[in-house]
Amino acid sequence: MNTAITVSKEDYLKAILEAESEGQHVISATLAHWLSVSPPAVTMALRRLKRDGYVVVHEDGTIQLSSTGKAIAYKTALRHHLIERMLSEIFGMEWYQIHDEAERLEHAVSPAFEAKLIEKLGERGTCPHGNTVLPDSPSQRKKRGLTPLSDVEEQENLIVASLYERDPKLLLFLHRHGIGPQTPIRVLARNYDETVTIETPSGTTTLGRPAAEKVWVRHV
Which pLDDT tens digit goes with each residue over 19-38? Predict the structure, then answer.
């Protein structure tokens, strides 16, 4: 097996692991969507990953990580998690800016620096978006008492517990609407067009379902 691992391979392996963790059925189209690449690019990448022993592609198109691929993917996800926490907890960088920064830096972390980050921050905390190293599936989130904002009833008082962090435009959009980690909110109305009107410390705002589905809340 070719032991060399490139940035591109790490990105693919991490995307597969995170999608599996969220309970998704991982196929080529999943990766094309998650990584914003073309289907032919995914096909070529999977061919290389399969050749190098990092993934198994089943006859029905389902993609699974090998034990080696899973280990590399977890290491990459862990470095991303630690960098996000470092940027937030140590350097005070804004929560809606750190995901993309961590995406760039995660590939440059040495084992020695990773060990120092774990020593300083610990491995089991949550990032500023409220997520652990690997994202939970919707069913796991619900078992922990979380609900997507899109499903909350009117006049309920809530705290934002977790945000979908892989869309930087969404994070900036939520920030501009006064919604962030640990923000107290109150649902004022569930509207006919599937939007939800909420009250935040910054005022009243309305979110469409695509955004509200990616905000997980808990009751106060």
Answer: 999 888 899 999 999 899 99
Chain centroid to CA 43: how far? Answer: 23
Thinking of the domain 1-128, which architecture would CATH place it in? Orthogonal Bundle (1.10)
Burial of 103 (0-12, 13-18, 19+ CB in 10 A): middle
CA distance 71 to 14: 10
Residue 135: what pLDDT?
A: 85
Q: Is 92 left (phi over 0), alpha (psi -120 to 50) or beta?
A: left
The per-residue pLDDT for range 134-175, each reduced to its tens digit, is 988 899 999 999 999 999 999 989 999 999 998 989 999 999
Could you state, in order of their start, the residue ranges of all structural domains in the chain?
A: 1-128, 138-219
Cα first-last separation, the chain: 52
Report, as ranges of residue numbers, the positions in the chain whose pLDDT lies below 70. 1-4
Q: What is the 3-state secondary structure (H, E, C) of 41-79?
A: HHHHHHHHHHHCCCEEECCCCCEEECHHHHHHHHHHHHH
Encoded amino acid at 136, one letter: D
The amino acid at residue 74 is: Y
For the CA atoms of 206, 212, 216, 217, what is the dihedral angle to 10 degrees?
A: 30
Would you identify the CATH topology of the domain 138-219? SH3 type barrels. (2.30.30)
